[in-house]
Structures are given as C-alpha cells and as structure tokens.
Amino acid sequence: MFVYADNAATTKISKKALEAMVSASEKYYGNPSSLHRVGQEAAEQLFHARERIAENINAKSPREIYFTSGGSEADNQAILSIAENGKKKGKNHIISSAFEHHAVLHTLKKLEKQGFEITLLDVHKNGIVDPAELEAAIKEETCLVTIMFANNEIGTIQPIREIGRICREKGIVFHTDAVQAAGHIPIDVQAMNIDLLSLSAHKFHGPKGVGALYCRNGILLHNLIEGGAQERSKRAGTENLPAILGMAEAFDEACNTMQKASEYVTNLRNRLIDGLSVIPHSVVNGDVENRLPGNVNMCFEGIEGESLLLLLDMKGIQASSGSACTSGSLDPSHVLLSIGLPHEVAHGSLRLTFSEENTMEEIEYIIKEVPQIVEYLRNMSPVWESLEKGEINHVI
Ligand SMILES: *Cc1c(COP(=O)(O)O)cnc(C)c1O
User: Fold this and answer.
1) Has 325 been annotated as catalytic?
2) Ligand 1 pocket member 206 (CB < 6 A)
3) Mutate to test the pocket of ligand 1, among 100, 203, 295, 333 (most ligand atoms within 8 A of CB)
4) CB-CB contact of 244 with 46 (8 Å)
5) In the chain, which ranges are continuous DSSP H helix?
6) Phi and psi (nearest 5°) for 333?
7) Residue 284: is its pLDDT beyond 80?
8) Which pTM was predicted?
9) For the segment 117-127, what is each residue's pLDDT rounded down to a tens digit?
C-alpha cells in the first residue's frame, strides 16, 4: 500500500487548482502591467484572485493582500518591515516563540546581530504559548510580536485571538505565520486583531512557489525585492499569474470544504493516535485538543527517527521525523526540544500528517506497520538494551 502522510511538508495540488493554472497560462498570458487588452484581462484576474484571498481571511480590502513567492518570503518581509519601522522610532524589541519556523527564527537571528533584542517565549510541554507570559514580556521598546498560528511539526494551535487582543490594546504590531493554519482552520484577521499574516499555497493543495502576505491598511511595508511597481510597489517582478490563480482556486476550495474536511481528518488523526499509543514507551507530542486536524507527532524511546522513516518508506508510508527543513541535519528538532523533550527522545520522532485524500484503510495499515518496525529497531538498539536491563532509566 502507498500512503502519503507528509502533508505538513507539502500537499498534492488539487485538480481544480491545476486546471486554473493551465487555463491561466493559456488564456491570461498578458503582463498585468500592460495597458492593452490582453494585459488588462490579466490584471483583472489578478485583482479577482486578491479579492478571493482577502475574503477567505476576512480582510477589509483586497489591497491588503500582497503576493509573494511563498511563506518564507512573506515571513521575511513582514518581520523585516516592522523591525525597520520600529527602529525608526527607537523600538528594538521583538517577541516571538521558541518553536517558530526557521523562516521566522533565522530572520530574528539576523535582526539580533543588527542590535535588536529578541525574546522567545516558552511553549511549555503542551506546545502552546501562554498569553499572560506574552503580556508580561511586553516592554516600552517592543515593536513586534510574531507568533505562529499553528506549529508545523506538532500541529499545536496558538491562542491567536488572545494574543491579537493583547497586542492591539498595547498598540504593538502582531504578525502571525499562518502557513499551517490557512485552509485548514478558520482565520479572521479582523476579529483576531491580526496585523500581518503569512500564508503559502502548497500547504493547502495549491501550487508551490507562491504565497501571500496580508498587511493591514495603514501599516508600512518595505520591499525585499526592488524593481517595478507591482504589488503596490512593495514586491517587484512580473506577477506569477498562473500560480496566483491556482492558489486562489485552492484556497477557495479549502475554505469552502473546511468544516467537513476537518471533521473527516480529525477522525483519522484520533484513530491513529489511539492505535499507536499502545506502543510501550511512546508519547504524543503537543496538546491533543488544540491541534491541527491532520497532525500526529509521536516519539518512541530507544530508536532513531531516521531509521524508522526509511523502513516506513519501504512499506510505502511517506512520513517525516519533524520538519522537512531540518532533515539532513543530525540535530534533533528545535520544536521537540522546545517542549522539553530530552535529546535522546527527540531523536525518535515520527510526524504523520494527513489530508482529505487519506483513508481509514491507510490509517489501519499504518497502525499495523509502525509497532512492528519500532519493535524491530528496538531489538537492534544498544540504547534499548540498556533501558531494558535497567542500566539507564526510561524517560517516557
Ligand atoms: C512551510 C512553512 C513555511 C515556508 O513556506 P514556503 O512557502 O515553503 O516558503 C513557513 N512557515 C511554516 C509554519 C511552514 O509550515
């Protein structure tokens, strides 16, 4: 059996999104900046896509949506822009969390080297930021709070509404990396007091290499890319219209079917968590309630996540040990360390992430295969032998 269970890394493009891309490439090949008819038809489509994205996150105006090359670019532009605005006012303090995506953490590192002070909030054992701790961390010099909507490894959903309320009350700009949330759980930038929000098409069955940044009217954005006057002069370069129309189509589809898909995928997730939790010395990482519908993340003591992945792949199961971005490095995931797991346990992690395309049959197949592979690896593991002999103590 073949099972694609790595939807947090990327999703398969939907038929409708693909059709929209093909038809856009054929029909709307004009440059939206051209004044002739073919150009203006493309410009119209571009505006329509902006409207659709804006509607799905309840932005006030389509003019608040800026198209980017993806989630990473949107994160970079949001954070660097607000930092620059803050610096001009003598405000050089930024609050974030310990388990953000590297697109956020590495941008903050860069700012730290330039003299910014960065506070990374604890995410506790459950993988959730405490709004009271956020409030306590705010200083006179704080110019930006950037906290992700939902975590890409353990799927925990943050108290975005509370964080937004606190930031708005204190007059601090609030950005959220909503790449894992968009198209999967409801987003309302007005009700949640979100000032800037990043999203990426390939995480909701849209094409790769395209995303969007929502920036509330009145907040000054700065360019990462200089050139022409596209995107209201905030992001130069001829627009990738086929990808943008594919994204708009996929986002509409995901938002229109969200409730049904969420119930369906949550059911798969809960069955898998139940099925795998019977493995001795295993743990589910992150809060089980405040969690993305399709995310399962577990650790199994005494094994290496990488070996588990290879053996699962041989059984047709496409999984991940955490983030696609850290694979290839031997360091355990910064996300798993941030929720307090010891290094040796964090190494034995498995992330399985699902979409509406997965079936209960696939879940049952995973429930059959994983325990056998874990046992096989444990039988070969010197660490497991020491644990069993009582030479070292079990942590989980
Ligand atoms: C995937 C991801 C990104 C990066 O998005 P790209 O479009 O691949 O650049 C950023 N943040 C989170 C939380 C993600 O899951």
Assistant:
1) yes
2) no
3) 203
4) yes
5) 15-27, 37-56, 71-88, 102-113, 131-137, 160-170, 230-233, 241-256, 258-276, 305-314, 334-338, 343-346, 360-380, 382-389
6) -60, 135
7) yes
8) 0.97
9) 999 999 999 99
